[in-house]
Amino acid sequence: MIDRDPFNTGLKAFLAASPSPYQAVTSMEAALSQAGFQALDEGDEWRLMPGQGYYVVRGGSSLIAFRVGLGDIVSQGVRMVGAHTDSPCLKVKPNPELTREGMLQLGVEVYGGALLAPWFDRDLSLAGRVYYRAPGESLPVSALLDFERPIALIPSLAIHLNREVNKGLEINAQLHLPPVIQQACDGFDFRDLLKDELSQQGYVVDQVVDYDLFFYDTQAPASVGLDESLLTSARLDNLLSCWTGLQALCQTTTDQTALLVCTDHEEVGSASAVGAEGPFLESVLRRLAGGETDYQRLIHHSLLISCDNAHAIHPNYRDRHDERHGPQLNAGPVIKVNANQRYASTSETSALFREYCREAGVPVQSFVVRSDMGCGSTIGPISSTQLGVRTVDVGAPQWAMHSIREVCGRDDAWYLARALEVFMQSREC
Asked: The domain spanning residue 133 has which CATH number?
């Protein structure tokens, strides 16, 4: 594993280059290709070679990468790490143009369980995927689009017009969230704007047909604190886990078959063709195994580490944690446990992860939600249920989860990557 500071430099570059799941997958594809992994197509017959790395993309926003081990995959199983590529945000509606009080705005939907207040008074840009009609093409073709520059904002209402705002702000997503993009003008068409932007990037576009576009904060990831012990960025949940899993996989060269799965739509339930509840991972594992009996044996010998960031204890809100289960920043990855199976960790799988951390020389922590509070969930229980595979839920501790600007410790992603590298090369699991 590379040293911590170069690791974090790479993490920040990955976060900055990945304003939507589509750009995140493209960034991972580039890193995998550079590491010698070969691209596969689900529509082709696969001829896999021991020792070689491969990756396959579904829908442009979900990716599975794996390195075929030199040993017998059926009897040894697969060392799997799972994460997700999406984050809560504001998604542009199909007919978004709004003109109000002389200003041009875009209608948006709230994607996932976003903290909405931090979206106000930010310099926003747009990124995602666009489908367009090109000369000579019978069907629409796609392109990734990122405006990169600030093109919008959601201004707050002055405190003089809402004197009680600091006692609680009620945000109506329909009325209060449409970003302002410019002064109003006659004949504005959002698809024409997209066409012009694509043309400036070298695409030949007859007409924009459809799109998946998401607003994001243009503020770059940063190291924060007098001692620079904190790392702040958008989309730490859960691109941090995608990056750590990717780095661990690229370091893996053993007899064991290791796999990274990064799926879209976790923040809205994972129920899609490219989500964890869909068949993507199972279809890849079945190809690796061969027949049905071999597939069942492979599952029996496999282990999945579901990586999704954990709630670090907040110094201003200590009462929101169980007094014995408040993970600290820069104190190592967190095992997440829930009696009602909102997390998939068991005593067996938790014990195994503790051993991987011990072997890697990494500290480890535990999180259990307060008994009088509800608990979130991850792809862990979904994948465990779908596949019947043993699973443990872990994650790097962070503050401000689902905010437009999240916070983690400078050590924790690196700690997690070291533990995942040990796991991916472990002889037994």
From this structure: 2.30.250.10
